[in-house]
Fold these 2 entries.
Entry 1:
Amino acid sequence: MPDLIDALQTGCGPLLPVVTETRPLRQRLFESLRAAGASSRADLARWLDCSPASVTAVSAELIDAGLVKEIDAPREPSRGRPPVALTVNAAVTAVAGVKLTDDAHTAVIIDFSGALIAQATLQSAAHRQTMAATLTEAEALLDMALAKAGMTRASLSWVGLGIAGVVDHAAGIVLWSPLLTERNAPLRETFAAAIGLPVTIDNDANLLALAELWFGAGRGMTDFAVVTIENGVGMGLVLGNRMFRGGSGLGMELGHTKVQLDGALCRCGSRGCLEAYVADYALVREAQTALHFNRDEAGSARELLETLYDEAKAGHKAALSIFRRAGRYLAVGLANVTELFDPHLIIISGGEMRFDFLYADAVLAEVQALTAQTGRTAPKIEINAWGDMVWARGAAALALSALTEQLLGTERVGG
Amino acid sequence: MPDLIDALQTGCGPLLPVVTETRPLRQRLFESLRAAGASSRADLARWLDCSPASVTAVSAELIDAGLVKEIDAPREPSRGRPPVALTVNAAVTAVAGVKLTDDAHTAVIIDFSGALIAQATLQSAAHRQTMAATLTEAEALLDMALAKAGMTRASLSWVGLGIAGVVDHAAGIVLWSPLLTERNAPLRETFAAAIGLPVTIDNDANLLALAELWFGAGRGMTDFAVVTIENGVGMGLVLGNRMFRGGSGLGMELGHTKVQLDGALCRCGSRGCLEAYVADYALVREAQTALHFNRDEAGSARELLETLYDEAKAGHKAALSIFRRAGRYLAVGLANVTELFDPHLIIISGGEMRFDFLYADAVLAEVQALTAQTGRTAPKIEINAWGDMVWARGAAALALSALTEQLLGTERVGG
DNA sequence: ATAATTAGTTCAGCCTGAGAATTAAAAAAT
DNA sequence: ATTTTTTAATTCTCAGGCTGAACTAATTAT
């Protein structure tokens, strides 16, 4: 704007507009309906704080479009005209979610109401691959899932794709991933072109947060963090019921927050990262010392960790101290998240919660102790083991919300 | 909503609505105009991405209301009909900003366009006081500033009030402050009742961020953090051009993020807080050791720190190491902010930047080193010494934005 | 003078949604 | 059985916010 009179540049206040989002009533109504499962018009009007007249108009529009339908629902007898239940027409279409890992890719298909239709798993290459090779696997997996569901690609209208690494969700580009040989891979466009369907991508931690927001403990929360500990340490954050991806939209790097000056060496090259104390590889390298194993006799990292865990359970001092230390540093990381974001809930989530030393009461108590001093109420911390499909479900939720935005949002993307 | 049919609770997706904010065009136009200082209708239409017709209508409305006026502005000759410059009518009203500290309270008065009219300072009690006593001082200070400006309270329409501590901006309550003897002090309502004007309150770190957003380096940024090091360590954060105050709206506690497991004792009672390494009191207690002073011979904390600083400058090894260590821990804290929020800019700001060891290139380089590994572009870090009035100016910006919201926003607060 | 160019206005109209009155369908009261 | 009460849903009118298209206004270029 500074076109006109630079001499008069005496203004004040932010030069850039606030990011503002308008959700038309039809979208809010639809999303409320899907969230509730089924609901009457009167309930919707109360819930959305709008007039019954608007609900009638909007729901008629949605019913005409075939997205919503009336159903007969059992109800308790009560005074007054009985409400008519509305529900999302699950049969409208379906979407898929695919999660890529270096172990096994997973996929799920859900219908328009969010209900699970089918799932599939495909053993994947354990090493870095090109994007092309990875996406070939993803395509095969998607077709497997479709076959299980008795569907074809034409039955789908969106696919969500998740991958570990630094992912630019908005641009659809993977800046870096432990799975891919190339950097700045245009994953979204490439996969979309390959399967002939619109695609949305995100990183694994955000998928987990999305899964919690759509299917789990986060459904009733507006602000929560989801922390996951696997090969690395990831975090997805929901603020004001929306994914927060940081200033540049690349997601947060809880695993690389520093919990120790000049601390343990992280695979990122820095020292003192949280990851360098609690991620798998951090435990593995100490396990080798504790159990007096060489790399050769140790077998796979996974086996080594299992041994370490068993030893710790059996009372092995050194083994136990590894988990203890990891737990204490995890507490520091979670405390820092609390001090900076002040979420109402921290969910520690993932496919499996193998090492319960990390999620012991002592760890949670330490988080409380580290944060209790500043006067605010400490967040609750929950542990959630979901099984391997949780990421794929999160990816499916990603697809479903993108589809809904396209169908009902203000910004129509090509139709 | 779960009124209807619990049996059908098969829904998915977030149950709570996204926090959505609608800013009517008249408000966006007005704020753009104030930000630009002066602008033509045509420029505004381009800037706001709306039709010229709307700009004509809205600006006519604002001119009628007396909030905006046309001015003659010098312009370069160019083809076409010459634009007519619009500007905010600065004379409409004024607002004040007041900042309370345990050293000296400060106040500024700015006009409706944000231009400074007057400022004043009042020596304050160096000890904790009741809210009533503090507000009596604040009231006296406000009247001093008004007298300097040749104005009366009736000339003001809003007052912003800032105080260190845990402040619930939305509720107008100070949960805890180093200045007040009581907890959960209803500062906003009490001061509003005392001076007969609407009041908005916030904590000092947020005021600083607001000052940067309105008057400083943050004006052209949508995402940035402002860090301040004084008696404690505070942070204000702007995300998407809006203040972010954490999940509970109480602000962030950068000073109590942990940078060392079982580290230095913080005045909050925990160990390893950033504050316990870089805040004034942390330097003081080490200075006593380094300079072999007793409490008695040391004089005030301020003098002690000055001595420490001079000694360090002169090459005193122990004194230097105190600043060095503080700087390194500060780098850890800033690196963590970067990993978690990924702001485009971190501004280290405050009234005075006394100890340039803390803001040395070595510190900034360490932040870069600690964050460079994760692939994203590290934020720029700027140092900004503003002088004592910066907080009061931030408080005035707070008042001005609250006033604007009331005048032009959708949510009319009582008329 | 005339054309070209840019600024700003007028006016009809669309879209979203609200309010009030009305109709619909059930249980409770008589 | 009829009436009243209660709650649900619809219809209709209308207002606010904004747009597009056509128009007027004021300047420079030719």
Note: The domain at 92-210+391-408 of chain A is CATH 3.30.420.40 (Nucleotidyltransferase; domain 5).
Entry 2:
Amino acid sequence: MREKLGKMPLPIVERLSVYLLTLLDIKSEGRVSVSSLELAERNGFSSAQVRKDLSCFGTFGKKGTGYDIDLLIEKIRGILGLKRTWRLALIGLGNLGKALITHKGFTTRAFEFVAIFEKKPSLVGKQYKGIQIYNIENLDKIAKAKRIEIVVLTIPKEEVAGVYEKVIVAGIPAALNFTPVRLLSKGNTLVKNVNFFQNLETLTFYLSNF
Amino acid sequence: MREKLGKMPLPIVERLSVYLLTLLDIKSEGRVSVSSLELAERNGFSSAQVRKDLSCFGTFGKKGTGYDIDLLIEKIRGILGLKRTWRLALIGLGNLGKALITHKGFTTRAFEFVAIFEKKPSLVGKQYKGIQIYNIENLDKIAKAKRIEIVVLTIPKEEVAGVYEKVIVAGIPAALNFTPVRLLSKGNTLVKNVNFFQNLETLTFYLSNF
DNA sequence: CTTTGTGAACTTCTTCACAGCT
DNA sequence: AGCTGTGAAGAAGTTCACAAAG
């Protein structure tokens, strides 16, 4: 069993998230155990990969039987830090921001929006879906008061640099970046970039070259 | 120089997309050439990586000077298949679907929505932002008539399996999947999964383990 | 002097294959 | 017999380091 969780390779962590989704799915079918082979085939991995990934965190399986679904769900939720609710703030209440705020997935999972930041003066001081809208200039103060852990960036290209600087100064632990500007982790802020166009372009690359 | 574009590793293709964005950015600053080192540092890669990636597709640089920005932009656009417009269809006109349809990035890039499919009978036959809304039952017929190349899936969990089956039967070349159900490429359809929660969960994993 | 392009070295990730438990 | 956990082997991806070119 591998140590040093903080240095765990990203591919393994990403697959853990996939396993969790699959386990919840299988559980909803009323099943109680599952083999590494099934977990693998449902997701296009190899069974050895599934076993090796899980073995990084402990020995959860039973030889001859496979993995107890409830147990494994709880273990993975623990590993991924999903046994508590995470406090998010949306920065940028455009169409995408609104879609994310109203997305059911956040609430049914372990994520809760506790604040919205928006530049447009007419929105500041109001609420959207019951969440208070603040001026981005107060990010530092509000982040501390509201104990914001992750900011979700859905602002236009032009505003990204300035806003990211404020996020770093505020010392917010993490950012999920939906803008088309790629950000690098800096200071104490861990960044994850989500780029639709990059995804589309990998598709057009492979479509073009077959 | 490496051959077999269709077998090019995904990480390289993804970085190409990043280089393109960076080049457009640098170009907008009025510059005409750039070194592999700068391209690397702006994105958190190594300069050797940049050079090796680009060398898979040809020799575009000038020793001592670096890369001509305009030339490299055109080369990468060519490699990624972005010299023409791609015909997209949205399946599922919920909040996320609407946000994507109105997202400026699609039109300013090489992507165009030519159809919308929606289950809700009250919407079928109408238009949204000038794009015709169709019944999903007609996917096969409309896909052919409209020459749809990529479908963007923004439907609820429950509908994914059924809709994906129709996409495969229609032989649509690619799907960008925003649903929480992971899909595997099948038939002639290439799938790219986009999962916000997976991204959030990688953040919570690292936040939890430091 | 600067910077590319690229084999060789290295590191990381994945699969193989099998001992060992149920 | 069925399936896990894992060391060893193999594949893939990254960096090193330097000859060659402007």
Note: Residues 1, 35-37, 47-48, 51-52, 54-55, 59, 61-67 of chain B lie near DNA strand C (CB under 10 Å from a C1').
